[in-house]
Amino acid sequence: MITEDLVKMSSNQGYVVEIVYENLYYSVVVILFYIFGEDISDVSNTYCSTDNEEVESGCMVTPGGHKYYVPISVEDNLKPFIGKSFQSLESGIAFYSEYGLLSGFNVRRSAEKTHSDHTILSKYLVCHKAGFSDAKLNCPEGSRSKIGKRRRTMSGRCGCEAKLVLKYSPGNIYIVYNFIEAHNHPLVPEDSRHFLKGSRKMSTCSMNFVFDASKVNIGTMKSFRMMKELVKGYENVGATSREFRNFDRDLKAFVGVADAQMIIEKFKVKQETDPCFFYDVDVDPAGNLTKLLWADSTVRRNYELYGDAVSFDPTFNTNKYNMVFAPFTGVDKHNKCVTFASTLLSKEDVPHFTWAFEALLKAMGRNPVCIVTDQCAAMKQAIPKCFKETNDFPASRHRLCMWHITEKFPLKLGHFLCKETEFMEKIKKYIWSSVIEPDEFEQGWK
């Protein structure tokens, strides 16, 4: 037949015929169809583009030249049909959603009809590309609406008419009342269906990974890339970076302003398992956390052994509440830094420093022999008040940090002496040594 010869001619030439009225080949086929009454369904399928996505989508063409796509990779028992019944509305929605994922499109819940007793009588489930965007419907062409501005995002809606209608039936069951299978857009190919919104779901493992990564200040994008490397590919993650960011956002919203109470509850649990764990807390009249000190059994043991010289450094600020993180540290017998306690303070004034030093005494039970700080006027007043002489312990000696002192050498002695001569190298040899004898220091100082 002439139609078969046309098909062979197009395939031999390697030419994919576009199905439009302006195309000569297709016009001839349409004319022959109306003259001879030939069935050109096979011809239409041949003329459809041989692109892999369209082949997987089951591309078909109407005699009018319009393409439509029918899923062809779904088994018959997984396809809905008119008259199919479900025990509940949610089971029907879940069935169609699963069918959509296997076919290559997302399912969106649409209109519904409800009885006076709130029973849903009918429910429409449509393709995610059904309808058109509000901007196209409401805004005049060539103008921009100033009312109800939205984010500048691309709309994928193209008026797809694929849908499933579930209707209520006596016996609390729902029956498929209407089912339109054809789509007016290509379906997502099988190797990309894991990016569909319905397929993207964070597993418990991914949630725990994001939570643990946030504890060590690893952002959601970096944790997403790390997760991709662990599971050997984006398709195995089960979610996109957007889901990772949304989960982190929802987690922070869930915690909200209760994070201070959460850490107190955690300390209480830790104190039950470790009797030597110590913490002290103080709040303002509004109930907001303003002061916190904690020390576990290990750091308290460190203080007992190496707590003669203590350094207090309130130079670190936290990100969210701008609270000061101030650790009490020292040096062990191996010349390694050890921690004695940690504090969070909302302010750097005399009352806050006084509270921190008194809480340290509660935890450790004795004064340090020497406490080293920077040149803070508030600490200069708080230290003699807290670490004063008692019947059991002498008063602590307050000394300034060597680093802060050496930083002021150029200002006090002049830049020429410090920068252009060997003075700094000579003096550091004696002031930075922890094992030097007094006579050797005096000789070196002279």
TrEMBL record:
InterPro entries (UniProt xref): FAR1_DNA_bnd_dom (IPR004330), MULE_transposase_dom (IPR018289)
Name by which UniProt lists this protein: Protein FAR1-RELATED SEQUENCE
Native source organism of the sequence: Heracleum sosnowskyi
Domain MULE transposase intervals: 310-407
Residues in FAR1 domain copies: 95-189
Domain of life, per lineage: Eukaryota
Transmembrane segments: none
